[in-house]
Amino acid sequence: MLEARLQQANLLKKVVDAIKDLVQDCNFDCNDSGIALQAMDNSHVALVSMLLRSDAFEPFRCDRNIALGINLGSLTKVLRAAQSDDILTLKAEDAPDVVNLTFESPSTDRISEYDIKLMDIDQEHLGIPETEYAATITMPAVEFQRICRDLSALSESVSIECAKDGVAFKCTGDIGSGSIQLRSHTDVEKPSNNVEIDLAEPVALTFSLKYLVNFCKASGMSESVKLCLSNEVPLLVEYGLQSNSYLRFYLAPKIGEEE
Amino acid sequence: MRRKPIPRPTAKAPLSETSQNIQSLPELAPKKKKRLVQMQLDLVGELRKKCRVCGMEYIPSNSEDVVLHRKFHAMNVGGVDFTKAFVERIKQNQVWAGGDGSFIAAVGRKDTLAFRNKASEVLKVVNTELAAVTIPDEALWSQLHSSISSKAVAHGEKPQPSAKGHSACSTSDRFKAYLYIHGQKCVGACLAERIQEAYTVVDQDDASEHTGRVPVPAEFHGASISISRVAEPAILGISRIWTSNLHRKMGIATTLLDSARSDFLYGMTIEKTMVAFSQPTGSGGELARKWFGRRAGWCVYID
């Protein structure tokens, strides 16, 4: 059986919020190392990969590998009933029909319990190849969110150009164009404000802003975000979570067609 | 040539204040357009997916394909949609009525084009699911009287099925479609055909019966059958029979068969022994075995 106790329901709430617009139904694969999720959006343009390691839970017990096929819409409905600082416990049998969620309020003695019916999702495991990225940019998550939001007002796509001296986010739309330049920056007082650029070779890629704005819903989960790019390879947007857990998004680039 | 432009400005004078800039805009736009194509992630081993319920293969990442599949799936699983008005109209052809407002309507050559087209539409779905060939509309609504005599001669048959059968067949339509309508959907269909002869199905696994392992082979027979070499007279051929996935195991196909038997020839109910199936699918064979009430000894005809 599975029993996982999360000190703050907020973590799961935010994860589900961030991915529910990309995927509707997906399997939560539970094993003794933690809970993992991998799903592609319907159009096969973006991929979500989440790992909540067992260390993130206290306690965590999973005797057998189980896949919980959950409709994220239903999960959102139930998680809405949880206060963000509630203690959340996930429970499931070895061959489950339902997953049980318990919310305990730390201040009062209120305990609420919900069961969500599981579904049989036929989904194969996606092997994500390990990639050496040419450029890795670490920046405050809110900064990335702001860039995406501001540029999405102008255009559908953004080109991310990373060179030695910094990274530029550029877009051109019907009403005009916009460009945001970031340089490496170290803030001694607040390291979370750092902008770090680790570059092996210059890269320039174009991505759909619609998806990036969607990814940015995870901004509240982590102070900084890591963007990994290589030419003609999907972009990796990674939000690091507590105890080595992560929420990763992959996005296929847009490529200009020869005319 | 010069004179012509002069009357124009006077006619359109109120618009003359429009900025001159506008004209240049549409020219610029297409120049700047760099066509960007969204790439897709290629991580799944197989791009195509086969729906486990309706059996359609499609590419889930292609939105057009997905819409097509959704349509086909709904039709396949839930039946073919009819409009309310059409259901009311086709009710006049009703040959059987069930308690819950469902009924069976017969559509033949003499029916209106609208009815026949709807029947063809249903048969299209049926043929796709059964992986059967499409019967062209001309053949579907043809009469049989001319070909009957020639066929009988060609086969050199001594005994005609019966005097009654012969006189009726000379005027009968070749095909008749029976549609089982439930609510506003056609959930089952049967295409009956006038035939002359059929071959008896012989029991394949006599051996297994002797060893007493009856329950196992009786569960599933597969699609393979063996037939006798001698043709027997037959009247009614079940060319196609189908029930939508959601409505199986409810006796719809059996009801369709009984309706076809009693309605196909005017004024007589055809004996079960005079009914034959076209080459059945696995589940078609199951139906035949259930309806005839025996594992072998029922007839199959070759079309």
Automatic annotation (TrEMBL), chain A:
The keyword Nucleus applies. Residues 1-124 form the Proliferating cell nuclear antigen PCNA N-terminal domain. GO terms for biological process: error-free translesion synthesis; lagging strand elongation; leading strand elongation; mismatch repair; regulation of DNA replication. Residues 127-254 form the Proliferating cell nuclear antigen PCNA C-terminal domain. One of its GO terms (cellular component) is PCNA complex. Keywords: DNA replication, DNA-binding, Nucleus. CDD domains: PCNA (cd00577). This protein is an auxiliary protein of DNA polymerase delta and is involved in the control of eukaryotic DNA replication by increasing the polymerase's processibility during elongation of the leading strand. Involved in DNA repair. This protein is an auxiliary protein of DNA polymerase delta and is involved in the control of eukaryotic DNA replication by increasing the polymerase's processivity during elongation of the leading strand. HAMAP family: DNApol_clamp_arch. This is DNA sliding clamp PCNA. It comes from Melanomma pulvis-pyrius CBS 109.77.
TrEMBL record, chain B:
Residues 1-21 are annotated as: Disordered. One of its GO terms (molecular function) is protein-lysine-acetyltransferase activity. It comes from the Eukaryota. Its main location: nucleus. Residues 232-301 form the N-acetyltransferase ESCO acetyl-transferase domain. InterPro entries: AcTrfase_ESCO_Znf_dom, ESCO_Acetyltransf_dom. It holds the Pfam family Acetyltransf_13. Belongs to the acetyltransferase family. ECO subfamily. GO terms for biological process: mitotic sister chromatid cohesion. This is Sister chromatid cohesion acetyltransferas-like protein Eco1. Residues 38-75 form the N-acetyltransferase ESCO zinc-finger domain. One of its GO terms (cellular component) is chromatin. It is found in: Nucleus. Keywords: Acyltransferase, Cell cycle, Metal-binding, Nucleus, Transferase, Zinc, Zinc-finger.
